[in-house]
Design brief:
Strand order of the largest sheet: 1-4
Shape: flat
Largest sheet: 2 strands, antiparallel
Oligomer: single chain
Radius of gyration: 41 Å
Distance between the termini: 92 Å
Structural class: mainly alpha
Number of helices: 7
Strand content: 5-15%
């Protein structure tokens, strides 16, 4: 009896193993079949698109940022605020001419701030030595100029330094304004069939009576 029970268990185990093998084999055959059917229908998004599209989106983030809504005046201003001149590069409108002018202006103003600052500090010290009447400190301008003249010269250098600092701010603002205006104007174009129409106009003014004039009309279009 024990022998028969053991045989029955082995037979049952064999049947279960055979059933699982057939089930696995059937599933393996059905998967490529479904894939082939989806490829025939042209639906390849479920097989390839998720991983490729995510990778593509991550890799082209900067490219998509610059191309989306181009040209965008807002983006041009933001880029200029981050780095002066970057908005001009974004607009792609004669940036190779504008960049040397922008950085030339910044460079000249920075040099002026540094140079006038050094002269101011030097004359500030010499003026202090000149008016303190101390025998231990002697000014290099002792006996040549008065303290008032030296003070005025010192104030001139300080004023130039402050004007240069203000100039940097103005160049910064003008650079952003130029980038914004250029990006805005890129969305407009003059129509190819531009024509000038001259039409007579008749106006009646209470003070001067009837006046006759000419009106000029230009056709201007906007990019879509």
């Amino acid at each position: 009896m024990a022998f028969n029970k053991k045989q029955m268990n082995q037979k049952l185990l064999f049947i279960i193993t055979l059933f699982l093998f057939q089930l696995n084999f059937s599933w393996a055959q059905s998967t490529p079949t479904k894939s082939v059917i989806s490829l025939k229908k042209g639906d390849t998004s479920s097989l390839f698109s998720p991983s490729i599209s995510e990778k593509k989106k991550k890799g082209n983030f900067i490219k998509r940022y610059f191309q989306k809504d181009y040209p965008s005046p807002k983006k041009a201003v933001v880029l200029t605020a981050i780095v002066p001149g970057l908005g001009q590069i974004y607009n792609k409108k004669h940036w190779y001419i504008k960049l040397p002018l922008i950085y030339g202006a910044f460079g000249g103003l920075i040099y002026s701030i540094d140079s006038n600052g050094k002269n101011f500090r030097k004359l500030e010290q010499e003026h202090r030595y000149l008016v303190d009447r101390s025998p231990t400190t002697t000014s290099m301008y002792e006996g040549d100029v008065s303290g008032e003249v030296l003070k005025n010269k010192r104030d001139q250098f300080q004023k130039r330094q402050h004007l240069s600092i203000i100039g940097i701010g103005l160049v910064y603002i003008l650079t952003a304004a130029e980038a914004y205006t250029t990006a805005h104007l890129l969305t407009f174009e003059v129509s190819d069939d531009l024509s000038m129409q001259i039409k007579p106009s008749l106006d009646i003014m209470p003070s001067s009576g009837m006046t006759v004039g000419l009106g000029v009309n230009f056709k201007i279009g906007k990019n879509k």
